[in-house]
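sorry to bug you again but im stuck and you know this stuff better than me. what follows is a protein written twice so to speak, once as letters and once as structure tokens for the fold. mainly i need to know what kind of three dimensional shape the backbone takes. anything you notice is useful, everything is just below:
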Amino acid sequence: MIGVRTLIGGSRFGARPEPAVARGNTDAHQRVAARLADLRRLEADLERARTRYERAIANYESRTRELERRGRSQPGGTRTKKAVASGNGARLRLSAATFDDLRALGLSETQSNRVLRHRSDRNVDSVAGLETVPGIPRAKLVELQQHLRD
């Protein structure tokens, strides 16, 4: 019959385990301790990342609310849509046009972004200056001239 000491590295007669076996157990303990330390470091990194993520989400939400608030307080967004829909001749100033205003005039998201970027970066403030904006067909420029003013 095999005793418990035989299973853990000792002999059946109660002798102490050989030094190599004892050293092996110490190495195993050190490896386990090292892995536990790695896990603790990873948990700390994960917690820091979670905190950064939550801050970023909160920042994004507050910025979104601020932009929505500004968008509602700026005149022109709904007025432009109504003016375009009704065809009553009301024209929007190019320098005051917002992204939503340009979208309501039939420009794509890319075209609207390009117009806004050219307006700010290159001081394009006239309807004629929109010809320098790439990706807007001439027919669309003619249509925009009916709805925009300098």
In short: The CA atoms of residues 131 and 141 lie 7 Å apart.
